[in-house]
Write a structure and sequence with these properties.
- The protein is an alpha+beta fold.
- It folds into two domains: 79 residues, Gyrase A, domain 2 (2-Layer Sandwich), CATH 3.30.1360; 142 residues, Cyclophilin-like (Cyclophilin, Beta Barrel), CATH 2.40.100.10.
- Helices cover 24% and strands 33% of the residues.
- The protein has six helices and 16 strands.
- Strands 12-9-10-7-6-15-5-16 form an eight-stranded mixed β-sheet.
- It is elongated.
- The model has no long low-confidence stretch (mean pLDDT 90).
């Protein structure tokens, strides 16, 4: 089954369409959906209000003041039927490298994951750092990126009782996902460390956030001194195939 034929489109309400792709969730699919969102935005520059990609779906919201949602449904169906998914070249996608201080001082669930997995804390840190993760979706809170997949040996379900406050920059694991709390928030992810990076803020009316669906992320460990002395340095970006 091709991606073109695997996508179903349904009207959610008078403003929105839901595109569901019946295809295995992979980093390649995430990149295809991210590209499709950008192309749809270019195709409907004045009527597409928002395009929100997720693991295997997209939510599109239109300005339907002049045309009905069923008009847009028909046109999006026609566009996707001929969309060049297979012709898209592998892009040079950036890797966003994020420093993390992994320690029980800021990672209260490190010991629990160690006990659950039978691994040492050092092994857990190594396993978390050695993978390149794909951002599948942004949600829950502004700037919160859902990334996957972590090594199965350190995958752990969400906490049964969420914490009332998780510190800004906390790095967590929930199932096979990993993510970073962009602000201090309630949350139930297993916290293994903290980054000093500011991953979401407003600069006037401009949103500053390094994440977008389809981008790739790697973590690297820093010590306490580097964590405390960290200044607002630019993110370390690498170009990689």
């Amino acid at each position: 089954m091709t991606l073109n034929s695997a996508i179903e489109i349904h009207a959610v309400n008078e403003l929105s369409l839901h595109l569901k792709c019946h295809h295995p969730i992979t980093p390649e699919l995430a990149q295809h959906l991210a590209n499709l969102c950008k192309d749809l935005a270019a195709h409907y520059p004045h009527t597409l209000i928002d395009a929100v990609p997720s693991y295997n779906s997209i939510l599109l919201t239109f300005d339907t003041s002049k045309e009905s949602i069923f008009y847009f449904k028909q046109h999006v169906q026609e566009l996707i039927a001929h969309y060049p998914f297979l012709e898209q070249e592998q892009q040079q996608r950036r890797i966003l490298r994020i420093p993390v201080y992994y320690h029980t001082d800021v990672g209260p669930d490190l010991r629990k994951i160690a006990e659950h997995s039978g691994l040492s804390i050092e092994d857990i840190i190594q396993l978390h750092c050695e993978r390149t993760y794909t951002v599948y979706s942004l949600g829950f809170a502004p700037g919160f990126a859902y990334m996957g997949n972590v090594d199965e040996r350190i995958a752990l379900p969400r906490l049964a009782t969420p914490r009332e406050r998780v510190a800004k920059g906390s790095v967590g694991i929930a199932g096979k996902q990993t993510g970073i709390y962009p602000q201090s928030l309630p949350g139930g992810w297993n916290i293994i460390g903290q980054t000093p990076c500011d991953l979401f803020h407003l600069d006037g009316n401009v949103v500053v956030c390094p994440f977008s669906a389809g981008c790739r992320v790697r973590f690297f460990a820093i010590n306490r001194e580097e964590f405390v002395d960290f200044t607002d340095k630019p993110f370390d970006l690498e170009n990689a195939p």
